[in-house]
Amino acid sequence: MDPSTGRKLDDDEGARYPLALLVQRYLGLDISEDKKNPKAWRLRYGELDGVPVERWPTEAAAYPKRDARYTLNVFFRQEAIARETPNGGNLHAEAEQMRAAFALHLASIWGLRTNGDSVAVLRERVEREWGENRAKFQAAGIYRADGTKDSKRLAALVTAAYDGQPPITAPSDRFPDGQVATDRDTLLGSGDTLLEDLGKSGRVDKYKSTYLDVVEAGTSLPINPRFNVLVSTTRVSSDYQQLPQKGGIREVHEARPGFAYCSVDYGGLELRTMAQRAIWELGFSKMAEALNSGLDVHTLAAAEFLGASYDELLPKVKAKEPLAVAFRQLAKILNFGKGGGMTGGSLVYNARAKDRVSFCLLAKRADVCGVQRVVITVQRKPKMVCRACVEVAKELDTKWLNAWPEQRELQQRAKSSTYGGGFADVMTPGANILRGGCGYTQILNTPFQGLGAVGCKLAMWRVSREMYVDRRSPLYGSRLVLMVHDELISELLANDAQRMHDAAERKAYLMREAMKETTPDLAPAIEAEPALSRIMSKDVATVRDSSGRLLVWEPPTKRAA
Questions:
Q1: Shortest CA distance to 478 belongs to which of 105, 223, 229, 107?
Q2: Which of 150, 262, 286, 495 is the most buried (most CB within 10 A)?
Q3: Example GO molecular function term (predicted)?
Q4: Is the pLDDT of residue 322 over 80?
């Protein structure tokens, strides 16, 4: 954590501004001891459940009053400083952020529930897999009998797998020459079956240590996610936004009796906000023209890569011809990565680490990925990636900029602003929210990520308002449970199929309209379709009957039964 900003280093999404930090910054007082003291009342109010307030201990009653006073005094100080600060210190956006915070607070109070039978099956499977993995790695000497890891043994195995030239971590005070890297990506790229299995086992470790107890608690009481309404990019972060897409953690979450989940996700939102940003800053966007015309921008970029026309390539993509599909996949990776300033090496690393995708294999440049490796830097850490993949990424980089010429100009401006490793301020257009001290990638990312966040928060507020106070709305009585960047997940009342359909469509309509207001030049391209389900899953899809009415999606196993 950077004590001067409250940000986790190299983690825009983790940036938090706790009251203790703000009190220290604006009032010059250190109240951290009150927050960290295990005897402080902030974590002990459960002891007073059922006790009338007038009978509370003096300190228990004083603590929240003191925090309220600190909050008010910080506000007054911020107001005073804002009068002398460019852009008013962003306080013009205060009302919108407070509305979003209130909507998220309501979602947190309502919470999520889990299915007891599903959780029991999940626990049995995870603990069995964890035990099998641990026994295998103990037999190989990676773990000792007491459960601790033998780092020297693991480093030796990695060194051998990389023929004596293993990836090395960045230098540190303790290890000025770095150490043999043993992170997940190094293990998965080692070519050694045992080490690859160790790399894959990390997800089971995560399920066991992070999620099992949480989802088990949700069988009897609501799980109440904590939301941070405002990180550096203007987006929302949460301890519940990073649920694993695979492995069954999502699927144990089940809507309450009498409700169904409704998920509405903006389609390709970052491409829309990226195009809107270009229009406002440069006056044009070729990507906006394509999106508003209903063209597939991934196929359009792939056509540039292959030296073909869009009309020639589109039928091949629809026919699932391997080369056309492969280059469309490459185009999708660049469309969502290059606009934020990712280098060829970073694109290769992320594609491989997250999706096990190899540029060289997709582009038919190699039969085996990783025969030769090069060292790249990702978030200031050295990583080894396939040389052929990096070469492909660099070739496609230039062609991608030819496809979207506005991005070349935006990237040149960002480079000029940060020449020599400098930093600059950047504005989220439309919302006019200023972010200071930005590096190259932050200058490129912040405007379009922030623009999307502004639209999503506006949509969330309008949806939540109808759920709680508009008795005429089909959404009345339903509840928001999660905001995951550009997706809103709700529990809709399910006792009337027609009303549930109307509520889902109303929610999607409100979301589309909010984003159209936020990105007016991309209004024709804004997409948001509802999907109904009983459980959470990344596989949930929109299902309709012959009349167009929404139906509740069922997982394939249940449909087969």
A1: 107
A2: 262
A3: DNA binding
A4: yes
Residue appearing with tokens 């099956």: 121
DSSP of 38-92: TTSGGGTGGGGTT--GGGS-HHHHHHHHHHHHHHHHHHHHHHHHHTTSGGGGGGG
pLDDT tens per residue across span 475-529: 999 999 999 989 999 999 999 999 999 999 999 999 999 999 999 999 999 999 9
CA distances from 211 to 220, 239, 247, 413, 499 (A): 15, 11, 11, 43, 34
Place of tokens 């906006």: 288
CA–CA distance, 80 with 98 (Å, rounded to integer): 19
Q: Which helix (H) or strand (E) segment is 261 a member of? A: strand 259-266
pTM of the model: 0.89
Q: Which amino acid does the sequence have at 376?
A: I
pLDDT digits (tens, 9 = 90+) for 440-451: 999 999 999 999
Look at residue 7 and give its three-state secondary structure: strand
| CA dist., res. 22 & res. 5, Å (int) | 9
Q: Collect all residues with Cβ–Cβ distance below 8 Å to 16 and sequence separation of at least 6.
A: 6, 7, 8, 228, 231
Which CATH number belongs to the domain containing residue 514 in this structure? 3.30.70.1130
Q: Are 290 and 399 in a shared domain? A: yes
Which H or E run contains 279?
helix 269-282
List the domain range (segments joined by +) for residue 32. 19-84
CA distance between the termini of the chain = 50
Tokens 């409250």 locate to 6
Q: Which two tokens stand for residue 69?
A: 């006073």
Q: Which of 152, 189, 507 is nearest to 376 (CA)?
A: 189
Final residue belonging to a domain, choices 403, 438, 468: 403
Does residue 394 sit in the same domain as residue 316? yes
Asked, for residue 231, whether it belongs to a domain, the answer is no
The tokens for 269 are: 């939102």
Please report which helix (H) or strand (E) contains residue 556, including its range.
helix 556-560
294 shares its domain with 397: yes
pLDDT at 38 over 90: no
Asked if residue 556 and residue 470 are part of one domain, the reply reads yes
Kind plus residue range of the DSSP H or E element containing 384: strand 381-386
503-538 burial, b at 16+ Cβ within 10 Å, e below that, comes to bbbbbbebbbbbbbebbebbbebbebbbbbbbbbbe
Tokens found for residue 211? 């999620």
